[in-house]
Amino acid sequence: MHRHIKIVPYSPTWPQRFQAERQSILSALGPLANACVIEHIGSTAVPGLAAKPIIDIMLGLPALNDIAPYIPALKSAGFHLQPQMAAAMPDRHYFARPAAHPREVHLHAVALDSAFWRDKLAFRDALRADEPLAGQYADLKRQLAYDHSGDRAAYTDAKSGFIASVLAMAAGKPHGKPAAR
């Protein structure tokens, strides 16, 4: 079954949804939460940016192989580990809620010092700091959602050149600073 990619206008409820999810995760993790960091990533983390209406959350762990004690806690918060994604995403553990489509939340458990962690934050921060750049990304996403409506992998792959160019602009800049153009 093909799930069509739907890009919707920005919703001011997305940050509140992230905060509610963050609190749920922290509560479920209990003392484990002291060793991790939780960030809102993806397009729903950029004010004004059109997006798929799925909240993307990044759970930064001290090390990627430290996931075992977190799995039961995340499961208790309604997250379902997607082990079939491991080969395609070796740099993270991927969870979703609910288990079936349509999904409301994606949770990416990654190592805090990983390139994945740094790149996701750098991309988010570059878009937050540059409204015209975020607008270009929204236009691209709408076009790609149209072009690749039933093929999420092709949609994601087609965004990679834009993302790489933004990360290249942001390279060498301290976290949180706008990228020079």
Describe this structure in words.
- This protein is α+β, with helices and mostly antiparallel strands and about 180 residues long.
- It has a single domain, classed as Beta Polymerase, domain 2, CATH 3.30.460.
- About 40% of the residues lie in helices and about 15% in strands.
- It contains five helices and five strands.
- The chain has helices at about 15-30, 70-75, 115-130, 130-145, 150-170; strands at about 35-40, 55-60, 80, 95, 105-110.
- A five-stranded mixed beta sheet has the order 1-2-5-4-3, with helices on both faces.
- Strand 4 and strand 5 (about 105-110) form a beta hairpin.
- The longest helix is centred in the C-terminal third of the chain and has 19 residues, at about 150-170.
- The protein starts with 13 loop residues before the first helix and ends in an 11-residue tail after the last helix.
- Residues about 175-180 have low confidence and may be disordered.
